[in-house]
Design goal:
Helix content is 16%, strand content 27%. The chain has 116 residues and is of the alpha+beta class. A 4-stranded antiparallel β-sheet has the order 1-2-3-4, with helices on one face. A hairpin with a 2-residue loop joins strand 1 and strand 2. The longest helix has 13 residues. 11% of the residues are buried. The model has no long low-confidence stretch (mean pLDDT 79).
Length: 116
């Protein structure tokens, strides 16, 4: 597959003052949506040394995803197990959640605007 770049027609100052949790809000919403799709029912938080780990557990008590935060340095990882993203989903307006009644987002723009 060829690489491609498309101008989003966004100002460099667009959303430049977003920090803290707001910086990750869209990614966390996408993480939650995918956990729900995979049968995730609740989250358990584990704190060990400099790491907080949030597990999304399904009804069979299996982990379907996790978020880890490591301090200092504030490294955050959001992982949905058994998930692969088709590169087409990274184009603004494309969404795999448009038909879902249980998803937080569905317009296909939130994460793309946030990471650009």
């Amino acid at each position: 597959r060829e690489s491609f770049m498309v101008s989003l027609n966004l100002s460099r100052s667009y959303a430049c003052n977003i920090d803290g949790f707001d910086r990750l809000r869209e990614l966390v919403q996408n993480w939650i949506d995918r956990c729900r799709e995979m049968g995730g029912r609740w989250t358990q938080m584990i704190h060990h040394n400099n790491t907080k780990l949030y597990l999304c557990i399904n009804e069979r008590k299996r982990t379907v995803g996790y978020i880890s935060e490591t301090f200092p340095g504030s490294v955050t990882r959001l992982v949905n197990l058994q998930t692969v993203l088709d590169p087409d989903i990274l184009a603004i307006g494309n969404s795999g959640k448009a038909e879902s009644e249980n998803s937080i987002g569905n317009f296909g723009e939130g994460m793309k605007v946030e990471i650009n």
